[in-house]
Amino acid sequence: RPEYSGTGAFSLEVFDRWGRPLFSADDPIGGWDGFTPEGNPAEAGVYFYALSVAGQAYRGQVTLVR
Questions:
Q1: Which candidate, 14, 24, 20, 22, places its Cα nearest to that of 41?
Q2: Which of 10, 48, 49, 56 is the most exposed place for a label (fewest CB within 10 A)?
Q3: Of 57, 56, 58, 63, which is closest to residue 17 (Cα–Cα)?
Q4: Which pairing describes strands 21-25 and 56-64: parallel, antiparallel, or unpaired?
Q5: In whole angstroms, what is the distance from residue 15 CA to residue 10 CA?
Q6: For 48-65, what is each residue's pLDDT tens digit?
Q7: Do the Cβ atoms of 40 and 33 come closer than 8 Å?
Q8: What is the pTM of this model?
């Protein structure tokens, strides 16, 4: 989960390698727990994120280790 203490708009999305959305949030308190939308543990591997904070967009990857 990203650390964010600002007051501007916040949006986080996590995708698998095929672009399927796995997680989205507009609240910086929560974060992706490594589970699929169906409630199953996501496989270990690389996932991609799109983060928007106060009008700034960031994209990158995160590695899930089990």
A1: 22
A2: 56
A3: 63
A4: unpaired
A5: 17
A6: 999 999 889 999 999 999
A7: no
A8: 0.85
* CA separation for the pair 10, 62 (Å, rounded): 18
Nearest to 36 by CA among 51, 47, 28, 52: 47
pLDDT of residue 27: 85
Tell whether the model's pLDDT for residue 3 goes beyond 80. Answer: no
Q: Residue 4: is its pLDDT beyond 90?
A: no
- Residue by residue, DSSP assigns the chain as -------S-EEEEEE-TT--EEEEES-TT----SB-TTSPBPPSEEEEEEEEETTEEEEEEEEE--
